[in-house]
Amino acid sequence: MCRWISAALLFVFMSAVGADYPGIGQKATPQEIQAWDTDIGPDLESLPDARGSVADGREVYALRCADCHGPGGRATTFFHPLVGGTTPEDIAVGRVASLEEERPDGASTLSLLPTLTTLLDYLYRAMPFGAAETLTLDEVYAVSAYLLFLGEVVQEDFVLDAASAREVQGRLPNRLGFTTDHGLWPGAPAEAGGFGNGGTPDTQSSRCMSDCLPASHHSAPADGI
Amino acid sequence: MTEATGQLTLAREGHLSDDDLGRLQLSRRRLMGLAVTATLPLAASATGAGSGAAAPARDGIQPPDYGLGHPVVHRPYGLPSSHQAGLERRSLQGLSPVPQNSASFTPLQGLFGVITPSGLHYERHHSGWIDPNPRDHYLLISASRPELIKQPMLFSLDDLLRLPSVSRMHFLECSGNTGIERKRAVAPTVQYTHGLLSCSEFTGVPLRLLLEKCGVDVRKARFVLAEGADAAALTRTIPMELIENDEVLVAYGQNGEHLRPENGFPLRLVVPGVQGVSWVKWLRRIEVGEAPYAARDEVLKYIDLMPDGQHRQYTSLQEVKSVILSPSGGQTLSAPGYYAINGVAWSGRGRIQAVDVSVDGGRSWREARLTGPVMDKCLTRFQADWTWDGSEHILQSRAVDETGHVQPTYAALRAARGSGSVYHNNAIQSWGVDHSGEVRNVQVD
User: Fold this and answer.
1) For chain B, what percent of residues have pLDDT higher than 70?
2) What percent of chain B stands above pLDDT 90?
3) Among A45, B207, B209, B443, which is most exposed with the fewest C-beta within 10 angstroms?
């Protein structure tokens, strides 16, 4: 009898604590999701409906950005420059030649940027530094238009909106400057919908134990910092 | 009462008091022969009991003369000994002009075992650290398209505390760790060469469980966006494969207590083997989607510049790596004699299989002892015996992980990638020991 009751209780217990975990969490309302889900995803076909001109962007930039990034987006006082390092040839080719000089510290946001949505997303959710999420979507589009103008990617009469964003994407100077062909993605490989070679390292060193190649060494300025 | 020398003196930076510094100079003078007397023969010191001239003076056989100690709960939350007060996180002047967008380094040179005390865990914040009130903090799980999820949900810290949990020990390394060394030896001590590295026990709920609760269509949603609640609203893309195999946790616990605010209180993502930036702190939102998100910190930062000017994107794994913590840069061997070589090894691809140690700059190697525990994607301690003969040496360690991947030399790493990227430098570290016993950061190709 006792055993029968225990078995019955066990059954009730297991069904109550199934994979559903009742009573845990709350359903998110559409309003809550809308308020929280503010990222601008990589799909150019589903960009938020907004617009901003170079002229508007110049004003927004002066008020909200120039303190840190300086006039013309080239200041390096606090952060890396926003523009610079690109040429009309880069825009034509889609690769930024100055990046081949192994000077990443000299790279600018625009000389690196392969995807326009990244710029819009970051400005909208995280800028200005110290006053995040205070730019409207129109202001984000306007400032982006102004930066693209500073980088000579668009003309002074340009207006950025969802339609023109797709055209601009095809003019970004470093749009072809990225590769995912490497072994440092921990998920599925490229052939299975992920990236790269599935985790094969690009260095294949041997475990030499004796008579290994003589090494040269460079002494360090150990008190250099 | 001082007798034989023979001590490993710790690094000079901040770590040592003025008294310590005075003693350091004293012991160096001794080594240079200026203070060696007939009663202090170096030969004797090499086989001595190890009580050094730079050590606190011995009181002979007198019992300690302590009065009553402090009462219980004198310090409701305990602190390290006052004699260890210099062992702290430190930043680098000039690392960043904006202290909220900067990093501090773990003092690896003074730690034992594999657990990093939570208060010494390295920091890398993009817009400063925050301390959200958990009563107002929720984790939203939603989808980039409504069809990918049956029921978007909000979870509180209390919700997560009620769910089944796991505790696991994992290392956490910034992909920029050792980045300043990419072209040449720069930093004086291991705190700055390798201190963007920590290891903790993390407790939390597998993210898979939460996604199942929300009814995520994992056939289509193969990527996950994680977002923090800090002003940077930092986002990174995580592959669904890591979530499906239960590796990714929504953690609330670290080393037996709640996360520290600097480490993401109340919730952070744990992504074992993957660079720190993906372990999103102050986690407030998980979105599932069908494509990677190309977020700022995977497009403009945390990208690996190759010699041809291309950048590798979505580089996330931290590959096999090791470093000798003792003797290491800034430390001083005060006299010839026995010094155990101690260090840590780790790999984002799994367990450490072996660590080799060289004391001749890589010409010959021998296998070190793994002193255990040896765990998946976790710091692993190694140790090797070494008796310093007073001559110049270059100490190196070389780790091998369970996939057989051998930690590369700088020459091998640069042959594959050049030296333009500040990220993912896992090359073999070298420490040069000179005649005086000073240990310095050097690079060996």
Assistant:
1) 87
2) 82
3) A45
C-beta atoms of A217 and B292 within 8 A = no
Query: Is B261 an interface residue toward A (CB < 8 Å)?
Result: no
CA distance A30 to A25: 16
Check if the beta carbon of residue A124 is closer than 8 Å to that of residue A118: no
Report the C-alpha gap between B409 and B320 in whole angstroms: 12
Q: Is B349 on the interface with A (CB under 8 A)?
A: yes
Lowest mean pLDDT of A15-29, A32-46, B237-251, B295-309, name the range.
A15-29
pLDDT band at B48 (very low <50, low <70, confident <90, very high): very low
- Take residue B395 and report the two structure tokens written for it: 């100490």
User: Mean pLDDT across the stretch B11-17?
Assistant: 49
What is residue A17's predicted lDDT score, i.e. its pLDDT?
42
Q: Which of residues 68-127 of A touch B (CB under 8 A)?
A: 77-79, 95-97, 99-100, 102-104, 109, 112-115, 117-118, 121-122, 125-126
Nearest-neighbour CA in chain A from B364: distance (Å):
4
Residues 206-225 of A with CB under 8 A from B: 206-225
Q: Is the pLDDT of residue B54 over 80?
A: no
A38-42, B60-64, B121-125, B366-370: the lowest-pLDDT one: B60-64
What is the pLDDT at residue B16? 44
Between positions 406 and 435 of B, the ones with CB within 8 A of A are 406-409, 412-413, 415-422, 424, 430, 432
Closest residue to A179, CB basis, from B310, B412, B442: B310
Question: In chain A, which among 142-181 make CB contacts under 8 A with chain B?
Answer: 177-181
Q: What are the extents of the domains in chain A?
A: 55-178
Domains and CATH numbers, chain B: 118-312 (3.90.420.10), 321-442 (2.60.40.650)
Convert the pLDDT of each residue in B184-231 to its tens digit. Answer: 999 999 999 999 999 999 999 999 999 999 999 999 999 999 999 999
Q: Which residue has the tokens 């030296």?
A: B419
Query: Cα separation of B393 and B292, whole Å?
Result: 48
Q: Which residue has the higher pLDDT, B22 or B348?
A: B348
pLDDT, average across residues A195-214? 92
Q: Which long-range contacts (CB under 8 A, 24 or more apart) does B18-26 make?
A: B23/B53, B23/B54, B24/B54, B24/B332, B26/B53, B26/B54
Q: Which CATH class is domain A55-178?
A: mainly alpha
**With contacts defined as CB-CB under 8 Å, which chain A residues touch B417?**
202
- Preferred mutation among B156, B211, B313 to probe A, highest tally of A CBs within 10 A: B313
CB B208 within 8 A of CB B248: yes
Q: How many Cβ atoms sit within 10 Å of the Cβ of residue B66?
A: 6
Residues of chain B contacting A199 with CB distance shorter than 8 Å = 317, 349
> Which of B386, B400, B375 has its CA nearest to residue B342?
B386
Q: Can you tell me the distance from the alpha carbon of B358 to that of B331, in angstroms, rounded to the nearest whole number?
A: 18
Nearest CB among B140, B299, B362 relative to A113 is that of: B299
Quote the pLDDT of residue A223. 46
Secondary element (H or E) of residue B214: helix B207-214
Give the lowest-confidence range in A38-42, A106-110, B298-302.
A106-110
- Spatial separation of the C-alpha atoms in residues B27 and B30, rounded to whole Å: 5
Q: Does position B437 have pLDDT exceeding 60, yes or no?
A: yes
CA distance linking residue B348 with residue B100, whole number of Å: 28
The answer to whether ipTM exceeds 0.90 is no
Residue-level pLDDT at B295: 97
Contact A118 B287 (CB under 8 A): no
